[in-house]
Amino acid sequence: MSKMTNKAVIIISAIVVLAAAGGISAYYLLRDRGVAAVVNGVKITEEKVAEEVSKSAAQYEAQGMALQPAQLEQVRSSVIENLITREVLLQESASFVIPDEEINEKIASLQSQFESDEAFNEALASQGYDPDSFKEVILQDMKIQKLIEEKVPEETTVTDEEILTFYKENPAYFTEPERIHASHILVTVEAGDDDEKKNQAKAKIERISEELKNGADFADTARRESEGPSGPQGGDLGEFTRGQMVSGFETVAFALPEGEISGIVETQFGYHIIKVHERFPESSVPLEDVRESINSYLVQDKNQTKLKDFLESLKNAAKIRIPGIKDEKTTEEV
């Protein structure tokens, strides 16, 4: 199965196969259990919408984010749109035939990802499925997949001109930020240290600084004296860009010329002495180095656009009615 088709089915099925379970929120218990939308005569009920909104809300709550009524309304709108899209696709793909053995193979593949049959069945039950209803959902998904594969053939070609245009129009994507290669020696000071410990740390870093000024090797000194995790590596921090180190350390490090050693720098971690080995100015990544990644991105973008256009064409051709919203083609309301 192609990457595009995989993604299409995941997008279309997202509302149906949500990972979190939960009861219908109190907010939606207050909503009239009527019809949320009608697609070519097929009703999407408020009960179904409330069920899927509840699952989505449970996902947020599992991450410690409780949705407010206004946010729930946004989720509801998204759920309705997804259910409408799915219903249009189900109707369009109704004539496709999927052999029972292919459906069973798909289910077996999913089931193999669980430790046991019991764990698989518990997962189904947590989402409100039994084996039969889950099999029906898999059948629907496979029909949709087959429809998309037939009606939206995968795009695989991108021209050199398209790649070059994208490269020129998006320079920020292909810019390597300024970076430096540096080492440091750290004498730590903990947040709760008393003045005596702070003074001892200050005396130690001052002694180290004098030794370096007198010609001591930086890496050897770091291995012997540094209290930071990079000490065994001679204090080597590797290469880094702005924003990766604490501000005081960064300011001094990026101001140092190559080969220079700083004075004593104080941060919340303690006292540092920094040596910059090499500086790398901001630069553009050569086109040839990113040609393949641009090609992949543009192919994916083309396929997503084709899929979106196909879905829009199906919905535009369908008779879709939503309570309180007039259908521009019929001027009817549900």
From TrEMBL:
Pfam families: Rotamase_3, SurA_N_3. Residues 177-278 form the PpiC domain. InterPro entries: PPIase_dom_sf (IPR046357), PPIase_PpiC (IPR000297), PrsA_foldase (IPR050245), Trigger_fact/SurA_dom_sf (IPR027304). One of its GO terms (molecular function) is peptidyl-prolyl cis-trans isomerase activity. Its EC number is 5.2.1.8. Keywords: Isomerase, Rotamase. Residues 214-239 are annotated as: Disordered. It is an enzyme of class 5 (isomerase). The keyword DNA damage does not apply. This is Peptidyl-prolyl cis-trans isomerase C. It comes from Spirochaeta isovalerica.
